[in-house]
Amino acid sequence: MTDRLYYHDSFLYDFEAKVEETAVGARPALILDRTAFYPTSGGQIFDIGTISIENEKLKVTEVADTEDGRVVHYLEAPVKDLPPGTPVRGQIDATRRRDHMQQHSGQHVLSAAFIRLHNLHTVSFHMADDYCSIDLDTPTLTKEQIESAERLANEIILENRPVDIRFVTRDQAGELGLRKLPAADRDELRIIDIREFDLSACGGTHVRQTGQIGCILLRKVERVRQGWRVEFVAGQRAVATARRDFTALTETAALFSAQIYDVPQQARKSLDEIRSLRKQREQAQEELAAAQASALLGETPESNSCRIVIRTLSDRDMNSLKLLAQKLTRLSPRVVALLASTSPQPSLVFAQSAGQPFDMGALMKQTLAALNGRGGGSKDMAQGGVPTPDGLQSALDSVSAILRS
Ligand SMILES: [Zn+2]
Predict the structure, then answer these.
(1) Distance 193 CA to ligand 1 centre (A)
(2) Around 380, how many Cα atoms within 13 Å sit in the side-chain half-sphere?
(3) Strand order of the sheet with strand 381-385?
(4) What is the Å distance from ligand 1's center to 50 Cα?
(5) What's the pLDDT score for residue 184?
(6) In the beta sheet, which residues pair with residue 14?
(7) Which end of the chain is more exposed for a tag (fewer CB within 10 A), N or C?
(8) d(CA 336, ligand 1 centre) in Å
């Protein structure tokens, strides 16, 4: 079993130890007799840092528990086989560790606050590189519950209460009334005691006083399988997150030439305007298509008791092309529309009035095969896109020739 120095002192960033085992294979690693490096467990992620052997400094990229209670330090680069007992010096990335202590201790305070105020129990804790989350065992979670728990958690932080590490037997732990008892059957338990606020069994690294957490900011909440997930950030992460939020909000406010607190109102107003303009545009497009259809039909002579309207247009998307085809084929019972648009995307629409004898889908397929395009459709209406506008007009002419033959 590795002697875990962080059990007694979370602020030990620099330590001496001896090599027990070296892994020289595909994933180089070291096992030491003692370590201050924290391995991923209990929701808290691992430390990184360096292990120095004589003049060589090895980068530790990940730290994990083994099944037999030892701690493996995975190294960035291969290492030669070191004899057991080789003295080493470990140095932990203190900035990362302090951040983890702030998040993890913040979690204890927050979980206790949800219990104290609303009797909502934490069922799991997750720490990622940029945010943390707890899952609360509850079918509902209100804004008031979130805000009051955040307020109480920050009060406990401001009161700067001592955070003590105690080791007790399992029986003693039962009498203490812990917030969280581990499932593992261990004789001795490590208790994290936030003075007169929270007692829980935990193997993680924590601050010495709640003031070192700095602050806690609750963020997104979402429904998950076993209750509600609450994302939070503590300490410097909370400051960095608030800074990022403020920057995003300030940039958005500048777009509206507004104060940041007026952004929701301005955004709502803009969305309403967009909706109303979209409606107006749709109506205008309908009217335009109807007028254009009527004009096109007027200038197209009838042949074999059918009018074949052939047009290549520009700046028409597929929808407006289809709209025009629809208007044309509904204006009169014997119309075939062969339409193309050169931009924004080169495209084709073939349509005929209901009851006409041709097969637009088949003609479209034939045309697209020649133009390297994709699409399809039914007997009365078909559409397709092609890679370039070259050859669109002559394709329409050949379809028209087929129809007239
Ligand atoms: Zn903990």
Answers:
(1) 10
(2) 12
(3) 307-313, 335-341, 347-352, 381-385, 374-377
(4) 24
(5) 65
(6) 91
(7) C
(8) 75
> Is residue 113's pLDDT more than 90?
yes
Using alpha carbons, select from 237, 218, 3, 224 the residue that is nearest to residue 100: 237
pLDDT (tens digit, 9 = 90+) per residue, 43-77?
889 999 999 998 899 999 999 999 988 999 999 99
> Which pLDDT score, from 0 to 100, does residue 185 have?
66
d(CA 168, CA 171) in angstroms, rounded, equals: 8
Q: How far is CA 355 from CA 266, 302, 402, in A?
A: 52, 17, 18
Q: What mean pLDDT is predicted for residues 88-106?
A: 96
Q: How far apart are CA 122 and CA 140, in angstroms?
A: 14
Distance 107 CA to ligand 1 centre (A): 8
Ligand 1 center from residue 127 Cα (angstroms) = 12
Q: Which residue reads 């001592």 in tokens?
A: 162
Listed in order, strand segments (DSSP E) in 83-162 are: 87-92, 122-127, 132-136
290 CA distance to ligand 1 centroid (A)? 70
